[in-house]
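User: what does the whole thing look like in 3D?
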Amino acid sequence: MSLPSGHTMGHNDQVAQRRARCSDIYQRRLSSRSEKVSPGMHSSSHQQQDGEAAMHGAHMDSSVRYTPYAISPYNRKGSFRKQDQTHVNMEREQKPPERRMEGNMPDGTLGSWFKITVPFGIKYNEKWLLNLIRKECSVPFIPVEFHYENMHASFFVENASIAYALKNVSGKISDEDNEKISIFVSPAGIPHFAQKELKSEKVEQIKLAMNQQCDVSQEALDIQGLPFYPDMMTRNTKMASNPGKCMAASLHVHEENIPTVMSAEGMDKWKGIEPGEKGAERSPVCTTFLDNSSNINSILELFPKLLCLDGQQSPRPTLCGTEAHKMLPTCKGSFFGSEMLKNLVLQFLQQYYLIYDSGDRQGLLSAYHDEACFSLSIPFNPEDSAPSSLCKYFKDSRNIKILKDPYLKGELLKHTKRDIVDSLSALPKTQHDLSSFLVDMWCQTEWMLCFSVNGVFKEVEGQSQGSVLAFTRTFITTPGSSSSLCIVNDKLFVRDTSHQGTQSALFTLVPTAFSSVPAFSQEQQKMLPS
Amino acid sequence: MRRGRSYWSQEDRERHQRRSYYYEGPHTSHSSSGGQTREEVVTPPVPEHAAAGSPMAMSVDFKTYVDQACRAAEEFVNIYYETMDKRRRALTRLYLDKATLIWNGNAVSGLDALNNFFDTLPSSEFQVNMLDCQPVHEQATQSQTTVLVVTSGTVKFDGNKQHYFNQNFLLTAQSTPNNTVWKIASDCFRFQDWSSS
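Assistant: Here's the predicted 3D structure for the full assembly of 727 residues, as structure tokens:
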């Protein structure tokens, strides 16, 4: 993401290279917004043929068949969230790995789409990237609607076995800087370009149905066990009817209803500054990137708590103060220096935790500076016996108040991005609840942006599976390439939530804050606090 | 990439030995020497800080920065919370003129505002259970030596129930030939359980 300091190239070469890369990225971003359908797309029947041909040539068993005993989500009552969780759990027990990734169509057939995402893929030329993947992939594939989205590159494939084969390529390919390239795969419903079968009246019906069902749930969205699909976090949790088609329609609806952009404020230094180029010349891509309204709004939907709490006061001032001589100031929600920085930070967090929760944290290498630092701590309470949910973090915990051994003090502070990412990879697998995030941006200069994130996450494997832990994480970042952030310091503090009562106690301040938020209609947008 | 840095170079070893007599322990600043007040966080002088990327930068290795950061952090935390609890009016002496504080989402900026703010806060009793620190990379600070200090524990403000808290500081070093004075450039404070009753 950013060039390390002390790079051996001459400054002018660096600048020229970066410009070239940036203008490529600019082209990609421009074209990705305007085209809806890839010009190289074949008719759906042709694709089907190719898909089947690919399957026959595949190395796996063609064990793709109708399974009458698999319970499709639409047949069950209850929230979409619960259905899918149980469904996936069942699959995990009974079916071979590639099964887990099949989307379920109402009639049980498996013509299913998968979205393939390369994190930070915006750095790469499309042809180059696809060729690289093809070389390593065990099956041939046709990438459909290749596009760049935020910092990532994505395309669709219409087959579970292919998706699985692509997933296996993750980490086996590297770019020109020798950084490993990761690949993420998730079920995708029916992408909008394939929606031609849905007649417009049906789409209207689905929209109506969605609006009726779009009441806001009181519980934190539980996405444990769901294949990770970022857009799903913004969807309504109560889709009792056909989820596949609903999701397709909601993809469509979402794009139509994006409200007009709020203009980005000037914090010029942060609009894509390159290290060493202090504002003199800025690459055009970064300005465009940050003005992208659909980016901003989809991010805000991921962080509903920020929408509700930002700048607002607590509805219960007695929480913090009583009739003492002096009252405590009212506790407020997230604090950001400016709208633009807020979007920058939220995008960063979305991308960071996408990878952090994916099961493969090696993808974070590009987020850190070569000489970054990381350490973690858990609370030390003399009265407590060690809480079991924190014991996995205990051996890495650095608390210099009680740790006097100078050797350990050094060891527990991870230095260099390789050591850091290795260390992070050894920590338990997690699922962070982005809707619980509270962010304080507390120091900002021309060269540094420092912010702390408070929130909760779940452990998703091992003995403490399902237990909820709270964390505070402080990032010190510098401007990276392509308007990204480069982490130089990372400090994680993990604690359990037991002394705070149940998980829901964390969210009582604004009841609707943590809910999964559906795509906003224009009417709903007007009702949001500004 | 360590680029061949060793942990303890000969120079550093000698420098460390020369200074060990000077640094007396966590309460150095409480013994008045050289006109320091009680509310100053002072440590031995910062190692020579060369420009980033120059060959000289290699000679000041990472371990030195880490050690220095730890010393500053430990000393700082002792003084800060004691001052906060017992000598509240002197607290702003630990802040830079243009320092900022985000206190449970409330932004306070500059010494005047900080003075008002700390004046309106009820009296406090802090108990710090966790302390950690990291040297901040020079790319973020343009060679202004800075330490990230993170604390956690409990606090009881008069008239209020006890809260768990997390606090982050950025301390910057202001060097004189004889010593280094550390001041708070930025401060972020949050109750951990701020949303529950």
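In plain terms: Chain B touches chain A through 62 residues (CB under 8 Å). Confidence is low (pLDDT under 50) at residues 1-8, 15-36, 49-59 of chain B.
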